Fold each of these.
Amino acid sequence: MALLEIQDLRTTFRTDEGPVHAVDGVSLSVEAGRVLGVVGESGCGKSATATSVMGLLPRTATMSGSIRLDGRELVGASERELRGIRGAEIAMIFQDPMASLNPVMRIGWQLEEAARLHGRVPRAELRARAIEALATVGIPSPEERLRAYPHELSGGMRQRVMIAMALINRPRVLIADEPTTALDVTTQAQILELMRDLRREVDAAIVLITHDLGVVAEMCDEVAVMYGGRVVERAPVDELFARPQHPYTWGLLASLPGRNLAGERLHQIPGAPPSLRTPPPGCRFAPRCGHAMDVCRVDPAPALAPTGRGDAAAACHLDLATRDRLAALETGEGA
Ligand code: SF4
């Protein structure tokens, strides 16, 4: 059974210009010991899905659907229940470390507090656990660093402290939202290794949100591709790279440097992502899709349907044979 199971999640933000449907019927699941990659351009609903799961939405947001953590329903849970779950059973790493660090408290206090809140570490061991957590994420002289305030650390160090805080209680589900974007290559490799350790040691389920398909290839078992607040393709990672089934995924893969012929310019998907306030009818990718047909521009949008290859599914009106033929050409593999 999936450790984290999201069914038909819909999250809407109220704005002065009207409602923004940031997450529009998303279903995802991830089992213990597995890594699910969630990819897509900025504004496609990846982060809104993550903050919905964590129960960290602003008051202007409404949410419906189902989010089950090890069988327990989180949609409709009280703030008190969610506080007990957050940080202990499910934790999140944000792209911006200042989103989870308190600027006026020393990091030692913050780490100890994260461990103390969930009562899993005896009081006498809190300091030792905080030191160990900093050492685990590769922070030199961890004892001295406990006394530092967040602003006294470099960006990379702050990112590591935030990761130490997320992992201090060994959560069973970790959501990592662009965890390595701002980091150098060496630190990035270390952070990915930490996530692998968590998966190995506590059989954690990891949701890795990223726009970096190289990281996806390296880390993930399954991938969900999001566009316009919806999942448009879902597949085991090898299947997604070998036989992508959605024109948007083709565009993402074609922009990978290794897929281009030497000397060719990197491919860019023309146009911009759709407005989530007034999305186009039918397939939301139609205005940017080189294969759009009349049927693509009328409601209802194509549903996520099995491609006949294992658990893979895609939401596109093109028939499977046409998709197979075009995929190689569009991603540069057939060049
Ligand atoms: Fe393109 Fe139509 Fe498929 Fe959408 S449904 S991706 S517009 S071919």
Amino acid sequence: MNAQAPKGTADMLPDVARAWEHLQRVAQELFARYGYEPVYTPLFEHTEVFTRGIGEATDIVSKEMYTFEDKGGRSITLRPEGTASVVRAALEHNLTANGAQAKLYYAGPMFRYERPQKGRMRQFWQIGIEVLGAAEPTADAEVITVLWRFFEALGIPAAIMRLLLNSMGDESCRPAYRDSIAAFIRQHARDLCEECVRRAETNPLRAFDCKNPGCREVMAGASLLRDELCDECAAHYAAVKTHLDALGIPYVEDSTLVRGLDYYTRTVFEIQVDAGLGSQNAIGGGGRYDRLMEAYDGPPTPGLGFALGFERTLLAMQAAGIEVPAPPRAEVFVARVDDSVTAEVFALAQRMRDAGVAAELDHQARSLKSQFKQADRLGARFVVVVGPDELASGEVTLRDMSTREEKRVALDAAPAAVAAALG
Ligand code: HAM
């Protein structure tokens, strides 16, 4: 039997799992201040949710989905991201009926069959928010601000983050621009990679995202969508920037930011951190998707949101020297002198726990000396020693591990005494 986790997946051992829980706590506390509510959607969906939502020509749909037929003959896909599922759920449960607005957040694993490398996994973890039913540019500025503030709340210095901002236009200005970029690619086909030339036919704007330096140089000569936006999109984009300026959120306009999902309209953004991340430097990103619900035959419903990647955020935190503090595994260790007091030790540890104290005891028949060592390893402030002689007089010994002071306390009073000493 091969005891290794599948390629591109990782076990979250306690240090990492604790960091994941820390991120979720910071997120919950922050998102609540902006009125977001939790939502949990299934880890798998009918494949169509993603093919229609994210777009057939995207890398995610064309190359990276975990798709299989279930025993009932349905095509099922493990979710590669959360937005499509949340919009599907909002439509199914009428969350935005009659012009209602829904503000939702989620956290959980996503699945993409990508080539694993630092910061790129096949199962990775995202935290995201989605606002449905909000068309105003204040919503764009709010969502971007929440993402920025989240990383700030984790302690990532603003100086190492770069917030990129762009507008993808909408159905009235983007098609003509797409055609002009497709024509540009065909014109420069000789100097572009095969993939970019193919993109002219499928998804021309993705050529801006090519990592190949030669392609980057050629694409730098293409016209920018920013200069070709229709009046409505230009006004929306300008208003988003004004609101961000008013809050002092430092963005950098990047007209080549196109992102890897087809549902975007108008605002797109990404936060990148170079330190510790290599080429997978986007720790979070998102944008507006005003036509997505219509892709599921729902009514026109504006929407927008972001998702941030846990693994990359953790790498950025590590590079910035931010540690998630580990609480002591035990505040008190209840040690036994010999086997004759096992029942009392077990009962006393439980009373400590019931009194709100993190208590541990020996389950491995260790000697008293190694119980003290174990108490040290667990970070216990106190050790309560239970022995037959003390017990005979209804007492135990309470030892403060930092001062090495010892005193006798009544067995019954021990939990309250420890709780009080811990403050
Ligand atoms: P995305 O840019 O594909 O957007 O993913 C968001 C974040 O997830 C990335 O910035 C990155 O940190 C992380 N991520 C993506 N793929 C991987 C991977 N293979 N390994 C590790 N981390 C990864 C979305 O998923 C959109 N649903 C965001 C959104 C929400 N747009 C609107 N609402």
